[in-house]
Write a structure and sequence with these properties.
The complex is a heterodimer of chains A (453) and B (544). Chain A has 453 residues and is α/β, with parallel strands linked by helices. In chain A, 34% of the residues lie in helices and 13% in strands. With 544 residues, chain B is mainly α. A three-stranded antiparallel sheet of chain B has the order 1-3-2, with no helix packed on it. In chain B, strands 4-5 form a two-stranded antiparallel sheet. Chain B has helices spanning 2-10, 12-22, 46-58, 68-80, 86-94, 100-109, 112-125, 138-153, 158-167, 189-201, 210-217, 265-273, 281-294, 314-326, 331-340, 371-382, 416-420, 440-448, 450-457, 460-466, 473-484, 491-501, 524-535, 538-541; strands at 170-171, 223-227, 234-238, 367-368, 542-543. The chains are: A alpha/beta (453), B mainly alpha (544). Chains A and B meet through helix 6, strand 6, helix 8, helix 9 and helix 10 of A and strand 4, helix 17, helix 18, helix 19 and helix 22 of B.
């Protein structure tokens, strides 16, 4: 029944789309973008490759604001009101010490950079999340895309060499909600949120893996859909309907093609899965490695629970060992597979937490929001490990040397990826927008991290 | 005539029954598709005279008329953003009055959903959103949305609508119109001027030379803002003593402006703007309403009016402007004029391959439904509801699940579906902010997500249609088509589906054209998947 139709379509798909999923291939047809894209666009990125050799980014996003004093910038001599009960331990790099609850990470300090000079001064979750992930000032006329969307714009299209069937920008497992990752680039540059839980027996990736539907049923249903898609067949040349058909091809590439296989974690060795930890966070890190292995340019692991105003230290005793296990295994695994040189891992939140501890009820040892000084973890992608960038004072209150503003960090990541920092971004209304802030935007900056490349 | 259509679209099984009743009726050839009526386009009003004259001059043949089923679905979706129910479809098809299309248009213009749907559109343009980057905040959003919706329901003349938005003073909670000057990303006079130019002139003033923008900004340099003791309450008022206040001297068309002592310059500006002679005011709204209904402006994009972007059919735009002025800016009268035209009611199947056909309105262009309309339609069919979330804590933002998405006041209140399907972020007020372009992630969601699967599988409404004991597969198919696609299945569709429905082992019965007697046991797969198939069809997702 109407199999010739299906066959024609399949043939067309195979010949026109080739092996590539081409999630963003039609981007340049998007009306208002066309003009801008000829000046900027993925082609420009390829031309301007600045020497960075990184290919992918894994962003481990610790929503809520992890405490710099209890993670990567310990101040053991600052007294109980600042240091609290947690001690610092040595790492395998002399002179670099981190929190005692991160012993696995302490064994591989040679592989990462601790950026202790992070600062933006904003203490609101949404605003700070926007600032740290876009490198821009909040409240301006233009709503900028996050680093993930910018990287996807330059590295996620077929023109830029990404030929995977998986969407080029993935978030494990939920999008950030209050923060619009795509900004003015629009909904096509939003991350694909997997939903589900990779630590479950079967990772039910939303839209890709459906409960109780076999591949054969999927194929049968698709055939039935084609045989009854009367409008589609009545208007074969209609551009809008062609776009719909193409989106369907992309969807089925995921459902029946390599997409569903990549999300199947049961093919990984059990002992490696254990090392990551059988938690949502741990298995998300493993999933992220599998995705960058397939060339996916940007993966965000969205991990919350860091807004610890109350009972902060109990929370740290729970959260830090998990972070240690997941992040250390991720770095080791990427390194073992030779992927660390081409994969940037950055881990941090929207701000740090107040150095001074509030011991009074109801906080019982709590730390508040703190944007003046905080730490971000950075590894791979050509960044030289075993380094510290920036210094805070004896209590972690202020950055005293080498401040690093959000745009400095993000710009360094772009630079390692070979993205031209002066390239234009296609604003749909034709407003001037560049990858990095221009002087007129008055975004504070102390320069990209040349010292660690 | 309705009977003919009924026969054509009911398929041969029903045709047989009706033929028996009609007796002498002679069978007609099956139409090539369910989207074209049998009759050629025929002028219905002045719009058609002008459009067809132009098409004639270009040698382009207009598409055929629509069949009643297609017209009905289209006019529901375009006028009230709502899918017709099966009962509504049948009532319309069975209506024998010759002017039933005009009658239906009248009914739809009077429905509450008309105000809901067009309030959604205006809230896009007026950027009604609690949070970043507009930061209107919930109380003001509710007040503003309420005023917009009430204005549309009462059909407030458009000139008054514009004047109230431009010149009001007072608290953002109590005088909702003042939120026009708050729903902007900055309160600089130049930003306010750009918002006014975009909204009421259809002009992108950010592309103007800076001196021209500067002279317009002067009219908005005395808009004052003052906080009160109430949380997020703000008074917007005429503040002649404001720092940086300027005396306006020139209107955007270059004519001289003379501000009287103690006059609010916004009043002076409104007096200049809101008159039939103004080169932008009437033209902008006439062109916008046309583009909303026909998918494309006579000047396109509708919010990019400039000298080097001329109307494709100047007589047509002039007619709409003239009619709008004559009706004293009665927007519903303009909707009526357009909806009743043959041009609006043309089939989506072009009769000409001329590349100029589309921009000259020779057929109705298919367009994907807006995110809100699409999910409302799916929920209407399945009886499911939608979970909304807002970053703002309750009680400001609690929305019951049963509320329809087109009625959401606040762009900060949302659902994953609305985000995925390109709902307007309401950041700039540009029409193009809404993104109806299909993408792979959207397809995955409709084809295979737990969200949609749940709605379909747990639907008591669909179960009631498909699992009545003794109901024949044909009747089930018929009900599903009427409910989901607002039409009868074609012969070919029915043939395919009854083959699907037949027991796998048994040969297809030679009497498969008789209704009512097919065994129910074999039809499970076909009719069980049919709602999924129809919802995933292009026809369901696109207005056509």
């Amino acid at each position: 029944m109407s199999s010739s139709y299906l066959t024609r379509r399949e043939l067309l798909r195979r010949s026109v789309l080739g092996a590539a999923g081409l999630w963003l291939a039609d981007g340049l047809a998007f009306r208002a973008w066309a003009a801008a894209a000829t000046q900027a666009g993925p082609g420009a990125a390829a031309k301007a490759a600045a020497g960075g050799k990184a290919k992918s980014v894994i962003q481990v996003w610790l929503w809520g604001g992890p405490p710099h004093l209890d993670t990567f910038d310990p101040k053991p001599d600052a007294g109980n009101d600042y240091a609290g009960p947690l001690k610092a331990i040595d790492t395998n790099v002399p002179g670099i010490r981190i929190c005692e609850l991160l012993p696995l990470l302490a064994k591989q300090a040679d592989k990462y950079v601790l950026v202790r000079g992070m600062t933006h001064g904003n203490n609101g979750h949404e605003t700070a999340a926007y600032m740290t992930q876009t490198g821009r000032k909040a409240g301006e006329r233009i709503i900028y895309p996050s680093a993930g969307a910018v990287v996807t714009y330059f590295k996620g299209s077929a023109e830029a060499g990404y030929k995977g069937q998986i969407p080029p920008y993935i978030v494990l497992t939920e999008a950030q909600g209050r923060f619009d990752e795509a900004g003015f680039l629009g909904s096509r540059y939003k991350p694909f949120a997997t939903g589900g839980d990779p630590s479950q027996a079967k990772f039910m990736v939303e839209g890709i893996v459906a409960q109780g539907v076999t591949d054969q049923q999927q194929r049968d249903r698709r055939e039935m859909l084609h045989s009854l898609d009367t409008l589609q067949r009545t208007l074969p040349g209609n551009p809008s309907l062609k776009a719909l058909a193409k989106s369907e091809d992309q969807a089925y590439d995921m459902i029946l093609g390599e997409g569903a296989k990549i999300f199947d974690l049961t093919t990984e060795k059990d002992d490696l899965r254990e090392r990551y930890g059988r938690t949502k966070f741990g298995q998300s890190c493993l999933m992220a490695r599998r995705l960058v292995e397939q060339g996916v340019p940007y993966v965000t692991i969205n991990s919350g629970g860091w807004d610890t105003h109350k009972d902060h230290f109990q929370a740290m005793r729970r959260k830090l060992p998990e972070l240690d296990k997941c992040l250390a295994t991720l770095i080791q695994d990427l390194s073992d597979r030779g992927l660390l040189d081409t994969t940037i891992v950055w881990c941090g939140g929207e701000f740090g937490r107040t150095p001074k501890i509030d011991w009074t009820p109801p906080w019982n040892g709590g730390r508040g929001h703190y944007g003046k000084a905080f730490s971000t973890f950075l590894a791979g992608g050509g960044f030289k490990g075993g380094r510290v960038v920036g210094v805070t004072d004896a209590r972690g209150d202020v950055v005293t040397e080498r401040p690093v503003y959000p745009c400095d960090l993000i710009g360094s990541i772009y630079d390692r990826l070979g993205i031209d920092l002066a390239a234009k971004l296609p604003h749909p209304q034709g407003l001037d927008a560049q990858v990095m802030p221009v002087a007129a935007e008055e975004v504070p900056s102390a320069g990209i991290l040349k010292e660690i490349v | 005539m309705p009977r003919n259509r009924l026969i054509r679209f009911a398929g041969r099984w029903l045709a047989a029954a009706v033929l028996a009743v009609a007796g002498t009726f002679t069978a007609v050839a099956a139409p090539p598709n369910p989207y074209e009526g049998r009759s050629a386009a025929a002028s219905h009003n002045q719009i058609d005279d002008i459009v067809f004259a132009r098409l004639d001059k270009l040698g382009i043949q207009p598409a055929n008329n629509t069949p009643d089923t297609v017209f009905m679905r289209r006019v529901y979706l375009d006028t009230i953003g709502t899918l017709p129910t099966e009962a509504e479809v049948l009532a319309f098809l069975n209506d024998r009055s010759p002017d039933k299309r005009d009658g239906l248009i009248e009914k739809l213009l009077a429905r509450d959903e008309f105000a809901d749907y067009w309030a959604m559109k205006w809230c896009d343009l007026l950027r009604v959103k609690s949070e970043f980057p507009i930061n209107l905040w919930p109380n003001a959003v509710q007040a503003y949305d309420h005023w917009i919706r009430a204005s549309l329901r009462q059909n407030l003349p458009y000139d008054r609508f514009a004047r109230e938005l431009l010149t009001s003073n007072g608290s953002n909670f109590r005088v909702a119109q003042v939120n026009f000057y708050r729903a902007v990303q900055s309160k600089e006079p130049a930003t306010l001027a750009q918002a006014v130019a975009l909204t009421f002139m259809g002009v992108r003033a950010d592309k103007w030379p800076s001196d021209k923008l500067g002279s317009m900004a002067a009219f908005f340099s005395q808009v004052g803002y003052k906080a009160t003791a109430e949380w997020k309450e703000e008074i917007v008022f005429f503040d002649p003593g404001k720092a940086g206040a300027q005396i306006p001297t020139l209107f955007p068309d270059g004519t001289k402006a003379v501000l009287a002592p103690d006059q609010d310059p916004r009043e002076l500006f409104a007096n200049w703007l809101i008159t039939p002679k103004n080169p932008w005011f009437t033209r902008n709204i006439a062109n916008r309403v046309w583009s909303w209904l026909l998918g494309r402006g006579i000047i396109h994009e509708p919010d990019d009016i400039r000298p080097d972007n001329p109307p494709v059919n100047p007589e047509l735009l002039a007619l709409l402007e003239k009619e709008l002025v004559a009706s004293k800016y009665d927007l519903k009268a303009l909707y009526r004029l357009i909806l009743e035209s043959q041009t609006y009611q043309l089939s989506c199947v072009p009769a000409s391959t001329d590349p100029r056909a589309e921009v000259n309105f020779a057929f109705y262009p298919v367009r994907r439904l807006e995110a809100e309309v699409l999910i409302d339609a799916i929920n209407q069919i399945t009886g499911a509801t939608e979970k909304y979330s807002s970053p703002i804590p309750e009680p400001f933002s609690f929305i019951p699940e049963t509320q329809r998405s087109i009625t959401l006041a606040d762009a900060s209140i949302t659902s994953p579906f609305l985000e995925l399907f390109g709902r307007s972020p309401r950041a700039s007020g540009l029409e193009a902010e809404r993104n109806n372009r299909p993408n792979g992630a959207q397809r995955l969601h409709l084809l295979n997500s737990s969200n949609i699967q749940k709605k379909l599988q747990q639907s008591a409404k669909l179960r009631a249609l498909t699992q009545q004991s003794g109901k024949s597969p044909r009747d089930i198919i018929l009900d599903l088509y009427l409910t989901i696609l607002s039409r009868y299945p074609t012969n070919e569709e029915m043939r395919i589906l009854t083959m699907e429905s037949a027991p796998a082992a048994a040969p297809v019965s030679s009497s498969s054209s008789s209704s009512g007697s097919a065994p129910v046991s074999g039809n499970r797969r076909g009719t069980a998947d049919l709602p999924w198939v129809l919802i995933n069809s292009a026809e369901f997702q696109f207005r056509h």
